Amino acid sequence: MYKSGTVLFLLLFMSSAYVLAQQKIAGTVVEKNTGTPIAFATVQVKNLKSTLTNENGEFELVVPELPVQILISHLNYASAGLRVTTAGTDLKIALDPQAMTLKEVTVGNPAIAIMQDAADKAYKTYNKSNYGRALLRQIAYESDRPVYLNEIWLDAEWKPYGLIAWHPTQARHLQGVKGISYTNTSFFSFILTGYLANSIHQKPLLKKVDSLYNFKLAGTFTQDGEEIAKIICTPKHKLKGKRFEGSYYVNTVTNNVLKIEGVIKGMYFKSSGPVSVKNKETTFIAQYRVNKQGDNVLDYSMLNTSNSLKVLGFGVQQTDLYSTLYMIDDETINRRELEAVDLEINDTKLVKAMTYNDDFWKKNPGIKRTEKEQAAIEILEKNTPLKK
């Protein structure tokens, strides 16, 4: 028969062994020629979890044991593999940039054909859902001063035209003493994530692609033995409202859209009270990947808006909202709890009502925060009581 002291010792020993088994690996991904940090590169531990590098090219991952094999990939760079044997080491991983070439074209516009093939394939899965867990991180600054932060882990349903349903599972909301209140910043972060057009935003990938946009082939490169085409998309003069201007990256072998990057024109944000908002620029990036079922689904998206604020028609203040959405496949989520993404949902109120779990966020930061993001959190935490 064991004495209680012996049992307690064994429990403490087992707990310590478990903690020691959790190993953190961290590093920075840079461009080989210039040393420039590479943002939003995928760092995948073979057969385990993955993460993205932040805007400074930094990443962190917690793994059950070492050694592990990691794969670092980015659409614009050649992939690289690395065996990690030691925890706590600040890895520096350099990727070679892809060399883009422009083929001579004698007849027609190949860009239209490439986009039409991509659209034809995408519309076959228009209503096919991909379920998973997602991290939404949003930070707002006014005159470079942090005033708002939302970090939400959520269950999600995504379709080729956008993230259409969600259910927050863990969240924290931080609000500055001064500054405007952001009541629903999630809607556009969700609804714009697709590569197909929807009723909110007319993206270039339509059933008849050249009806609203002009296309030009910027060049091609080879990745994993397959040709990737970069297509420049510009809206025709008759296109009004929310429209895209930038580039689509399309795999010409599989006809999958791999990435979108550019700006969204015609963005408009509603405001209440004495504050008026004018959107100056909205930049947008979304990357896609093939899941285990062979479907082309969302990997991550980034939506950054720069706006001018006026109060009672006087004074101009700069405000910037940085929004990142990262999605991980998970078919086991509770689909019955999902709610439709709606412009009228007050996500700030919803998140405030949730219990903040400090231990969860220490273990599940999602994407490593930059120094600027961490400083913003520390400033806002002093002003915001968290519901624990």
TrEMBL record:
InterPro entries given in the database record: CarboxyPept-like_regulatory
Keyword Repeat belongs to the record: no
Keywords from the UniProt entry: Signal
Keyword Signal: yes
SUPFAM superfamilies linked: Carboxypeptidase regulatory domain-like
Signal peptide residues on this chain, from the entry's feature table: 1-21
Superkingdom as given in the UniProt entry: Bacteria
One Pfam family named in its UniProt record: CarbopepD_reg_2
Protein name, per record: Carboxypeptidase-like protein
